[in-house]
Structures are given as C-alpha cells and as structure tokens.
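call fold target=Response regulator
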Amino acid sequence: MKVVIVDDEKHVRSAITMLAEWDKLGIQEVLQASDGEEAERLIELHQPHIVLTDMRMPRKSGAELLTWLSENKPHMKTIVISGYDDFEYVRHAIRHGGMDYILKPVKAAALNEALKKAVQCWRKEEDERIRLTQQMIGMNEMKPHYTDRLLTELLSGQSGREFLEGIQDELQFPAGLASCSVAVAAVSQLDHELFGKFKNRLQLIHFVILNICNELLRSRGIAFRQLDSRGEIVLLFWGPSEQFEALLGEIGKGILVTLQRQVHFGLALERSYPKELPRAYQEASKALWKRNALDPARIHRQHAEKMEQAGRPLRLSAYEEELRLAALSGSNDRIRAAAEHWIAEVRQLDSVSPELLLQWNQEWEWMRTQWLEDGRTTSAVDARETSADMPVCLPLDQQGMLSWATLQGELENRLADVSAPLTRMHANHTSFIESIASYLNEHYREEVSLQDVAARFYLSREYIARKFKQAYGVTILDYLSRIRIDRAKLLLHNPHLRIVQIAEMVGYPDEKYFRRVFKKIEGVSPGEYRKEHTIG
C-alpha cells in the first residue's frame, strides 16, 4: 500500500514518518508533499491508498485538497492532522470523507490507530469491489465469451459474407466498414503482485481491462479477448487513425487509475477490413511481444529494420551445466552466484523482450524436465507453473518493464525448488559412484581432474568428492594415483621399458612428478622397486 503525507512543515512530515508503524500496517511506500498542489500531482502519479493532510497550507489548503479528493478520488482514505481544533475544519473533513481528525502534536498511538482503521476500511471496500465485479462477470459471462469467439474467428481470417454480415448485425459494426486499426495488450505481461492481488483470477483482470477499453472506445471500436492467444486483449478502432494513439493513452490512464499498473500496446494503424485484419493483428501482437522491456515507451510498432538487426538471442540452456551443478550443490551461496552470473550476462543485452523472457521460461521447463526425468520426481514448481488457467507470469514490474530483482529471485527460487528432488534422485542411484570408479580405471592414462568428472556426470565437485570418499575411503585424486602406480608397478617388471616411458604410459607426462608420487605411495623410488622385484 502507498501513503502520501501532506504538510508545509518538514519536521511534522518527518515526525509522522518516524511514528507510524508502516511495516506492521502493510504500507510499503510513503510519499511527501508540502502543500495541496504538490499533493495532487503526487496522487495522480502514484495513486496512493491513504492521504494524511494538514489543513492550513500555502497555495492549496488541506480543505481544498479534501474537496478535490472527494470529487476525483473518492475511494482514497483521508486522515486530517491539524494544529487547529476548529469546528468548521472538522465538519469540512467529515463532509468530504475524512476518516479521522488528529490534533498536533501527533501521538504515535492516535496516528497508528487512525492508520489501522484506514487500512482496514480500504481493504474491506477493495474486497467488496472485487466481489461485485465477480458478480457482474457471472451475470454477463456468456455474451462476452460469444463475442470473443466471433472476433477471434475474424482475426484468424474468417471472412465469408454470411459471417461478416452476422458480425455487423450482432456487434453493430459500421455499415460499409472499409478499414480499421488494431492494438494488442497482454494481461500476461502484468506483474506477479497484481496476479497475487486478484488471487490468480485471470478472468477478473480481463474483465476490468475490457470494461475500461470499451467504455472509452464507445461507438468507435470494440475490445475483446483473443481466445487463441497468451492472454491478449485486442482493440479494433474504426475512427480516424490519427486519434487512436491518443485514445490508447486515455485507456492506459484509466487502467493505471484502476489497477495502478501501466499497460503496453502493440499497434498497427489503418488496414483494409476485413482482408488485412489478420495481418494487422499479427503485426501488432509481434510489436508487443518483441518490444524492449528496458524501454519505458508504452505504445509499440513493428520496425522491420530492428527485427533484422537483432542478433542471436541469449540462451538460458547455454548455462545449463552451471545451473544444474548449483542446484545439486544444495548451497544457497552457489545458487545465488549462478543466478548472479546469469543476470550479469543478461545485463549486457541492449534489449530484452517479453518474447525472450517466455523463451527462457520454456528453456527452464525443458531443463528441469530433463534433470528430473530419470527420477520421475516432481516438485513444488509444477503446481505453480503448469496451471491451465494462468499464463506464465513474466518478471516485469508495475510499469511493464523488466524487474532485475524478480528475474534473479525467480531463478534462485527455481534452482532451490529443484535442488532437493534432484539431490534425492542422485542419492538413490548410488551406482553412479561405481560408474565414476570405472571411468577412472578406463581413463587413468589421460589427464583427469575433479572438474572433468563433475562435468561428465552432471554433479557438483563437492558432492562427488564427499560421496566418493564415503564409498572408497580416499579422495578421487588418491584413488586415481593408486590406479596409476599399480599399473606402473606391473610395467616396471619389464626391463626393456625406461621409467620415463612408463610414466607417460600411466598418465604422468612429467617423469619427476611420477617419481615423487611413486615414492610417496610405495616408500621407494621406481628404480629401487624395479631392482627389488626384477628376477635375475
């Protein structure tokens, strides 16, 4: 929740900020204004839930601000904090929706009690608004779905004469319609927090946005759900094309006021109807999904030259080995480091599109399935990400731009979720330790490191080292050294082989190092061993 504190005295604003129990009340953002005019600008920009205001201020007083709020933002909760115990002030506050009137100097108990009442009241009214909206959806459910299906068919290229005449009659399309413009918005490009607020009721979010769109389109167009897409809303506009962008701006403002979210639109202006309508829709949709989520622009058009210049996309799957080893380590630090490395790579990009974010989601799902396939194991991730009713929620913020924190946190959570089942799966397959031992016996002549073994068996170095020592009582390096020295001892019985040749044959290109390892294990040098064990 958000709060705006309005007072011309800075020390009063600071005192309120310190006295209020913001976290306990569930208030995340506190803004300040020094008078009513500044407050109006902040309120329009940030859409707070609660306003705390003084009464006497320069330029625009608290009384004037209360009047403006009651007329323009009646859902906002207001609390007056004043140094004047004046009946007219109190009466004005009550008449214009003020919930409480607190006298200065402000006491913590009175302030927090008033804030608590305001928060509870706002939440209760919000729940009621959602309930009523759901009720309206239930009453009008069938007709909108029928309309959505008809218009989705129109976008797919259905253009028979009888079909078009039916649309014109049933939906009141203008007679003789020759052209129209198309815009596309996507509910699936909204943020996690909004989905949580609506308890993942995607239909309700669609309903709210469609109501705003159609209220402002009126007789100049129609908005509907594209039923064959990933949560898209399509707007057809048959008014003058030069008016469409301004209208989309008004629609965006309406959505911002209602949902406190910025919505992005893909746009294709004035195409012939109905022939070019499917192509116009595809163009607008592509512009929306290929937009740069690092760019704050709200309206997007398809630019062919930019599409051609786009290089090879960054692949999450290219980092599969690092991510899998991090998950297998079970270490939060290793998981965080792997996620930070990925984010550092993404930050090198000039553009990150919603389409690319979707691709990374799909790559993650593929990797996770591959990792857990042998163990036939599921995790908590399944329930969250495979709902038939919900699109994949992208790591975007309230402005529809890429949220770096969400992108990193999402990857860390996914790795943490898959860590336990992946580790259990490998723990149940103890034979992999024997496979590693067999591999060392077969490849002792080659240069083999712990990292090589970890990469080959898709396990973390720490996990392999720990499990191998538990099984064999020695480290992998010591085990490999014993294999090599045992082979060398057999070869030393052949007097025709020089020691330097034997060293190379068992995996030691450096003869001096071979001699040191041999003496450490056997207690004698290779030459001494040969003298002691050579017959004749």
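return ok
The CA atoms of residues 47 and 260 lie 7 Å apart. The longest helix spans residues 108-139.
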